[in-house]
Amino acid sequence: MLFVKYFFSLIIIFTPLNLKADEVNDWLNKEINTIISAYQNNNLTNENKFLLIEKTINNNFAGSGIAKFVAGKSWNGATKDTKLEYINLFKRHLALNIASMMRGYSDQNYELVNSRYDKKNKVTLIDMEIFSETGSIQVTWRVKKSKERYFVIDLIVADISLVVTKRSEFNSMLKNTNYNLQDFNIKLLEQNNSSYQKLIN
To answer: Which of 33, 29, 65 is nearest to 52 (CA)?
Structure first.
């Protein structure tokens, strides 16, 4: 009798965790498929492919939070309008980066191989293995739930964090503008336009 009570206690404890893992995995799988399907749709122009992918990324990445983190100390000294402009520019920059990366994987098979929940940071980490003829590469998606929705807060490729890399990259660029976010926005706009042209042509 004691064993039966213990067994059902385990079911009560672990079932919600398993359901949650399945839920977030299904959500991520759906969003990744949306991006890959866009690349594989020959009826779409390169520009329309990117716009669809950009919309998917903007809807599912915590763009504003990542943008603020990446801006570092330049954030506090900026005006509200400058911050809003920067967030919009950063979201496009992020979309361009991820779209370019995913294009390289669009004709390869992938599998979500593992997921685990980080209780301390309240983040789910989902490992995705991408297979090619020469081997495979692992990408880890860091996903957080907020206001009943999931958001990707980081992407780790070969143990390198996209967010940390962007913070370092942007810090070097911001240093050249004396951490003036308004001046930095001009440079970021130019960079985005250049990347956009390369991606759609």
So the answer is: 33
If you ran DSSP here, which 8-state letter would residue 111 be given? E
DSSP 35-68: HHHHHH-TTS-HHHHHHHHHHHHHHHB-HHHHHH
Token couple for 22: 């399945």
- Our CA angle for 134, 138, 143, nearest 5°, is 155
Rounded to an integer, what distance in angstroms lies between the CA atom of residue 84 and that of residue 75?
A: 11
| Residue 101 neighbours by CB under 8 Å, 6+ apart | 157
| Global pTM value | 0.84
Going by pLDDT thresholds of 50, 70 and 90, the confidence category of residue 22 is: confident
Q: Do 185 and 86 form a contact (C-beta atoms < 8 A)?
A: yes
Look-up: residue for tokens 């911050």?
Answer: 83
H helices present in the chain, as ranges = 2-40, 46-60, 63-71, 80-103, 162-175, 181-200
- Name the residue type at position 132: S
What percentage of the chain reaches a pLDDT higher than 90?
67
The string of pLDDT tens digits covering residues 92-142 is 999 999 888 888 777 788 899 999 999 999 999 999 998 888 888 899 999
